[in-house]
Amino acid sequence: MLMSQRVGGVRIENLKKQYGQGENAFLALKDVNMQVAPGEVVGLIGPSGSGKSTLLKCLGAIIDPTEGVMKLGDQVIYDQGWKVRDLRALRRDKIGFVFQAPYLIPFLDVVDNVALLPMLAGVPNGQAREKALHLLEALDVAHRAQAMPSQLSGGEQQRVAIARGLVNRPPIILADEPTAPLDSERALAVIRILNDMAREYETAIIVVTHDEKIIPTFKRIYHIRDGITYEEAGQGRPIN
Amino acid sequence: MINLASRDILHSWGKFIFTGMGLGLLIGVTLVMAGVYRGLVSDGKSLLDNSGADVWVVQQDTLGPYAEPSSLNDDVYRGILGIPGVEQATNITYLTMQVRHNDTDVRVMVVGIAPGMAGKTPGWPRFLVAGRHITRSHYEAVADIATGLKLGDKITLRRNQYTVVGLTRRMVSSGGDPMVFIPLKDAQEAQFLKNNEAIWLDRRKTQANPEFNRPNVPGLLDSILTSRTSNLSVNSVLVTLKEGVDPVQVITNIERWKYLTAYGRADMEDILVGKMIATSARQIAMFLIILAVVSAAIVAFIIYTLTMDKIREIAVLKLIGTRNFTIASMIVQQSVVLGIIGFVVGKITSSFSAPYFPKYVLIMPEDSIMGFVAVMIICILASLVAIRMALRVDPAEAVGG
Prior knowledge:
By secondary structure, chain A is an alpha/beta fold. Chain A has helices spanning 52-59, 87-94, 110-120, 125-138, 154-166, 184-201; strands at residues 10-19, 26-36, 41-45, 67-72, 75-79, 82-83, 95-98, 172-176, 204-208, 220-225, 228-233.
């Protein structure tokens, strides 16, 4: 197993997650170790039932692990039963989510879909919209800022979803099959954007994927099988 | 912070407007039901107001003249006039009947009024909107405009024809039937007047009775026949009091010395509102409760469905850190907006439809305010089910797996 020596980003040590008790107990995560540096994009690959979704939920502070340590940057968010009290604020401020489907709020226009997160964190509306517009410009969808999500193409929606994930500058972004509904060209474009944004915003990005088109682009990949992670070097193929 | 509720409403305004309109029709029916009750009370009170009386004298131990039949001799009023404190005492009859006019039947309350002056003699219509008051002793009538009668129209009451010489308004019985005023003598006759065949048969029966054909009592049969074809009864004596006179004292005197029952204004109101329309009021109250429950169920169902439609968005909102309060507030606000749309539509519908109801529908401003408050409370309570469901949504639903 290769272990990066870089600090910051995300660090997970000996993470376990058990569902149920006694005879019905099922250990979904047996031994998960991961470290993703700020600005790095890593792939998380595994067959169905391997524990990917459970790991994603633990990383996303949606469910509690049973054992182990999780750190986001310098902040310990879980340590052998101890956890951060306000998981909602943690998700809002420290974790960005990008899903297979963009899941934009259909009744908010593009700029407000992105600005909603800083607004929830208490940023005044004007400043939040400014931040959102800045990101939308970087992702080349600023011209659709006033459009409703239903008026956007699939690629545009995914870029808005990425902007939403990044807007609070979280130390980690969890991307769950972000390229699944896209063709090769658009899938690679999304990965390029994620790489660019990771570098620019010093964000650690974990991409859960089965997509053969994008797997060769990762420099590091975590495989998960039967609840155990294995790290390997990826091809790191450049994206044109 | 963005107002999520208003954005969602603006985004799917059609759904909200049409749902609100549907709800509004239900609220409109509820307001009309309340208006029907108020109309009943108002009809009862206007009957008392319009009679112009301070005291109603009726047959002993009856709730007449409106709630029970009451029969008094038409000379009783003379004795009442002699009681201290009484200013005026006048006979009156009430008879509810069906009047044929222009091939349609109109249900009216025929009021027999004693000779006197409008505005002074109790029982007379208080004002006219057209024509003149009754000036002749027979065959003239003043009708409420709700009867549909016009000046110069001829109506038949029993065997006599009456010409409408004046029109008045809001002169109705406690049941909402419009009034037709005719001279007292005609009204007394109309109460018991039979057809010719019936009179003839009655006379034959009386003539054949040996009790009335005694050889040593000449003229007995003629006297009996005369008394049978004339009616000397009235339903009530309306009394007005001199200024500053205590009605209780006058009532006590009438009951003590005349062996009659007398009611003051408050007693009469109690009879009309508390007794006569009590069953109708309970019936309407039941309808109001059912309609309120149905409205609450509909609002709850609509809000629940609207929330169910947004379950994925709610999961995403929770995942990205939206507070439960923000989500609950969004649902309550939408429910309240739905209630406001419904109330506005309901108020407009009820206000415009009220005049077309056959009976008087009175929608009071305080009832509208109370209705609005009730709608708001119902909407807030109805949104609790949807809020409970929304707060139980697992943010993991946004992630899947």
